[in-house]
């Protein structure tokens, strides 16, 4: 077992990782284990300068591609920027969405009323943003209903999936920023999240996982997949049928 991260695939050009939760992609402090890119450098040693092609929020786990050569980085970014990459996530949300499948078409921009500087929201003058979702199944825990969703963002806006799902009334379980109480986020950042706030969040990290990316690479259809972490799997009783989604 690699102590740095789970390697999904590696060759001369690509390193594909299942990013763990609670890990930033780029460093915010000196510890070489504190960011995904720093861990990539440790993993690769002197094999050049790794370049991250896609990024995930700190609490979001899942598939991240790292280019091992400048040429691969340029080509992969071109694919991402031109919309040639299909991204699929799984998320656990509060409630049961109706209808069971939908397209959320809602522009996103800065939330200027929020005390949280990084927070965005749906606003009519925002950037075009569309997200598809489908309910895989709904389930109950302690008398409350939750749903496991398959989600496909059609754009790559900051916090897009989290904002869109909250916008339609089904925020992601454990989301400190868009779950209805942004003070949870501020208190968490400041290290003073109360037991009551933690209980309302239910999970320590928000239940969003980048489960799959697919695209054509070197003239071949290519797909990389990864299962979510144990906390996510345990909460929704993840099983073989979910692996096939």
Write the layout of secondary structure elements.
Blueprint: E1 6-10, E2 14-19, H1 36-44, E3 51-52, E4 61-67, H2 70-81, E5 86-94, E6 101-105, E7 108-110, E8 120-122, E9 130-141, E10 144-153, H3 160-167, H4 182-189, H5 195-201, E11 208-217, E12 220-225, H6 230-236, H7 240-243
In short:
Helix content is 22%, strand content 32%.
Key descriptive features of the protein:
245 residues, alpha+beta, Pseudouridine synthase, ten-stranded mixed β-sheet, two-stranded antiparallel ribbon, globular
Order of helices and strands: EEHEEHEEEEEEHHHEEHH
Q: Say how many strands there are.
A: 12
Coarse shape? globular
Question: Which range best describes the helical content: under 10%, 10-25%, 25-40%, 40-55%, 55-70% or over 70%?
Answer: 10-25%
Characterize the biggest β-sheet.
10 strands, mixed
Beta-strand proportion:
25-35%
The name CATH uses for the topology of the domain at 86-206 is Pseudouridine synthase
Instruction: Kindly name the structural category.
Output: alpha+beta
Specify the CATH homologous superfamily of the domain at 86-206: Pseudouridine synthase
Cα gyration radius (Å): 18 Å
Low-confidence stretches: none
Task: Output mean pLDDT.
Answer: 94
> Which CATH architecture of the domain at 86-206 is right?
2-Layer Sandwich
The level-1 CATH class of the domain at 86-206: Alpha Beta
Gap between N and C termini, in Å? 26 Å
Number of helices: 7
